[in-house]
Specification:
Helix content of chain A: 25-40%
Number of strands of chain A: 6
Shape of chain A: globular
Oligomer: homodimer
Amino acid sequence: MSDLLERLRGRGWRLTSQRRVVAEVLDGEHVHLTADEVHARAAERLPEISRATVYNTLGELVTLGEVIEVSTDGRAKRYDPNAHRPHQHLICTGCGAIRDVHPLGNPLSDLPTEQRFGFTVSQAEVTYRGLCPTCAG
Amino acid sequence: MSDLLERLRGRGWRLTSQRRVVAEVLDGEHVHLTADEVHARAAERLPEISRATVYNTLGELVTLGEVIEVSTDGRAKRYDPNAHRPHQHLICTGCGAIRDVHPLGNPLSDLPTEQRFGFTVSQAEVTYRGLCPTCAG
DNA sequence: TCCTACGATGGACGGAATCCAAGTCAAGAA
DNA sequence: TTCTTGACTTGGATTCCGTCCATCGTAGGA
């Protein structure tokens, strides 16, 4: 993600301090932050950044394919900067911790044609759930 | 799901008219309703049922394992009464339509031990996305 | 340096879900 | 059958998450 800003500039992005800070927050963290968490971390460096701008920027990054939006539960969406390596997620049902995981095979190929009902299926998202070592005690 | 009410009674549920109506709505519909849709259908039979009661009852049914909660996107959760047959979901990214699907194999077995990071993994949920025949035009 | 269109701001707004205090009632007890 | 009680329901307030919008500011080209 280090050359993210260069790539964005190449796509005609106006490089504002707000966008730079949001991109840096995502770059530095290999976790899965909510929009509000991104806003909080961004505000440490740029105190007057608004929530609307964070939402706008995250939405743009998702549209550009630089960040993946993960809605694991009914709560706040999380933003995953690891967009260029296909992966799935493993979530602890105790504490909510999220890990990127790489299952075997391609989940998409497990859905036979007669189970697609005429849909043009383009994506398969797998969420594994269980207890992490800490929560399992 | 026909003997659902009997099972619930056996678990010490107080059998109120509201709970009966919510269970019947889910029983009769083999689709994936939102809480508000359940409330609307329930209100046809029991006009004064409140939204809070519908939320309470749905939450209890989920806790008891009689209904599955599906949070597909950032929208309203959907409630799937088909809880006793393992299945996955195929969602149209255009109109939001949901279908139950049965992929080959067991998704859980695709996650090798070294990718479990000490977690006790108990569930794998697969969401396929694509365009339905109507939206693909 | 100036211009201007694109981006930022923050407060209002909206949908979804939860919370809470007060009222109601299912079902066991007598 | 009636009584009693605690579980259940109610609906309005509240929270949470996210979007919208009119206005202001500024990045970057001329």
